[in-house]
Amino acid sequence: MVLSKEEFNKYIAILKKELKPAMGCTEPIAIAYSTAKAKKILNNVPDSINIKCSSNIIKNADGVTVPNSGKLKGIETAAILGALGGNSEKELEVLTDVTKQDVIKTKKLLNTNYCNVELLESKAKLHIKAYAYYEDEKVMVEMLNEHTNIVKIIKDDKLIFEKDAKLISEDESKKNKKYMSVKKIIEFANNVDIKEVSDIIKRQIKYNLEISNEGISNDYGLNVGSTILESKKDSIEAILKGYSAAASDARMSGSLLPVVINSGSGNQGITVSIPVIKYAEYLNIGNDKLIRSLIISNLISIYIKGKIGILSAYCGAVSAAAGSGAAFTYLSGGGYKEISDTITNTLGNTSGILCDGAKPSCAAKIASSIDSAILAHKLTMANKSFGPNEGIIKDNIEDSINVIGKIADKGMNNIDKEILKAMLNDNK
Is the pLDDT of residue 174 over 70? Predict the structure, then answer.
């Protein structure tokens, strides 16, 4: 298979678009970004704010520590901090410039009616409407389908910005990846000029290793990563799982260090990168091969997640681990068949892990997903793979990925609703 120049450019564009730095969990950061944008339009810190969020945003933002907040959690914290000290020019690093005074004021405002949060009934999984008020002025900022995708701004009942409806008609993560396939991803990784993508991948290596080391060295969350490493220090399996989980420990519990994300998620960005980097170190693999393996890991994850949708009851660590498992096999000399078998073996094992919001326990789910990818890789290298029609597995990798997407995107909608009810203590 030979990719056209247009296809090469599309894959490069996807990597540039998807592999961006983000501080903290992307859902509360999206909320902070929306209120920071509203503040900028008002040209004043709002007197009050109202946030309407889709159910998946509430699920993923309610229980996670907001970075630069003094270890505060939740939607209100993100919204208020964004409105007080957020810099919308920095997008997913919107809270970088927050001051101690901003945090002190946020703590005080959390005990008032300054910020009101409501459920936004929407077909979109990622949907936010931020309303900000200052004296007799008001602004509404609407975000849809992506964490920085502002589609509408209204000031004082006048429309001042709106994206073309055609551009927001469906989830971007699905629309722009319909032409992807496992075979094309491998072809791209093998033949792309390294210079075209090295800066993107090297930034991912640098940032994600830094937060991994931060999680190992300091006390964050449940210390899942360091606990794994303490139990089996010399085991490569423990290294792959431990260093990855440690990065999530830090990220979920308020570290100020950014993560280079994948598919809109820092935890997925960690899962596709840290284990691959550590496995390449273990195998003493050169830099060019490492970069190509990370291209495979990132794009496989983006491809599968594009079928699932950006937010779902399906844990994104699993689809990301399918990417890192594919990279393990690529680093070990595997080609299309072997890489496909590793993806199959991963998805056929741990596709039942639920996403019940962003929180410290995500680190453990990352470790479990990577454990599945390691097993999948070992089975592949022993020339073993789950066969067609074993449960959800189909005759070829593309059909298997399509099935996973349908289960996660359509079949798990009711599960998502029940998870949110449980999280909100609604037992009706």
Answer: no
